[in-house]
Design brief:
The structure holds 2 protein chains of 2 kinds. Helices cover 48% and strands 8% of the residues of chain A. By secondary structure, chain A is mainly alpha-helical. The radius of gyration of chain A is 16 Å and the shape is globular. By secondary structure, chain B is mostly helical. The chains are: A mainly alpha, B mainly alpha. The interface between A and B is medium-sized, with 17 and 23 residues.
């Protein structure tokens, strides 16, 4: 089903959704880990509230951008009430498409001298 | 500070009622867990951090609860249901008004054919106006089965006046007729509940066809 879908149809992503996809790009995480990862990566500038996080997760599960894991990465070390999420293959394609869209925008901003060459 | 922590947890869990119940059932415990984890982190910083965190959480709650309700209504075909319910309510009001008008006409012109059914018209009009407003409101704001709402509402709005009149009627009116009064409320209950049953069945058939 995901093969028939075009990642561009999901763009632009909401900032919360893109941050969640980024958080899951390198490892499976539960909700609190996602929240902390986003917080640390953005130096506290993006703070996902519980409603935003789980509202986005609900929609991303529905769109099959992410999937809930049946097994737990480390059951002995973990609270079994937590749910872990993983980036799906289609979710990765959507994240790449969104990153490319944003990169193209940054490029335009550079040509318009809104950004210096060295500043990202 | 530690003594305030459980209270904050409980307050947040209570605030989760702002979300639609399906969303709350699925994600409520996870959101409460997330709130507690984050709260503990903030509690290690400074007192103002907790206050700022509450500001973020309340803002998040208001915005996302509204969003989830809007999404749920879109999925439910909320406007179609609302239109259908308003048509039902208007039709019920029209029936109740017609019963009142007929009764008033019968009394002012002493039309015996109408006055024979006077008590029934009285019960149909009174129970109809009150009962249908209650049914409409409960069907809008709760998730209960509309037919069950109609059953209980019309049972109560017919039973309560019937009991009150049965107790008080003979004391205030020597010519009070208990059997006729009770019959009128039974007929009123059967009339309104049958109407709701038919309306409910018609809606279900229309849904099945679509």
């Amino acid at each position: 089903m995901a093969k028939d879908r075009n990642p561009d149809d999901f763009l632009p992503l909401t900032p919360a959704m893109f941050h969640i996809l980024l958080a899951l790009a390198d490892q499976d995480r539960h909700g609190y880990e996602i929240m902390r990862e986003v917080d640390e990566r953005t130096a506290g500038k993006v703070r996902l509230g519980p409603g935003t996080l789980y509202g986005s997760i609900k929609r991303m599960l529905g769109d099959e951008l992410i999937e809930e894991l049946d097994e737990r990465p480390d059951p002995e070390m973990d609270d079994e009430r937590r749910r872990y999420y993983r980036l799906s293959g289609f979710g990765r394609r959507v994240a790449v498409a969104e990153a490319e869209r944003l990169a193209a925008l940054v490029k335009v901003a550079r040509t318009k001298k809104l950004l210096s060459v060295h500043r990202v | 500070m530690k003594t305030n922590i459980p209270l904050s947890f409980r307050i947040y869990e209570l605030l989760l009622v702002a979300y639609p119940c399906e969303f709350r059932d699925e994600y409520g415990p996870l959101m409460a867990q997330l709130f507690r984890d984050r709260y503990r982190d903030e509690a290690t910083k400074h007192k103002l951090a907790i206050l700022l965190y509450w500001c973020v959480v309340v803002n998040d709650l208001v915005v996302t609860a509204f969003k989830e309700h809007a999404e749920k209504r879109k999925g439910d075909g909320f406007m179609n249901n609302l239109r259908r319910d308003l048509i039902g309510l208007s039709a019920s009001a029209a029936i109740a008004v017609a019963a009142f008008a007929l009764l008033s006409y019968g009394r002012s012109n002493e039309v015996s054919a109408i006055l024979v059914f006077g008590r029934i018209l009285d019960a149909v009009a009174t129970a109809g106006i009150i009962g249908n407003i209650v049914v409409f409101l409960l069907a809008r704001i709760t998730k209960w089965d509309p037919l069950r709402i109609a059953l209980w509402t019309f049972l109560i709005v017919n039973l309560v006046p019937a009991i009150v009149l049965a107790l008080v009627g003979p004391k205030i009116d020597p010519q009070f007729r208990l059997t006729a009064t009770l019959t009128s409320y039974v007929v009123s209950f059967l009339f309104w509940f049958s109407l709701h049953y038919a309306w409910h069945s018609a809606g279900r058939n229309a849904l099945a066809k679509s």
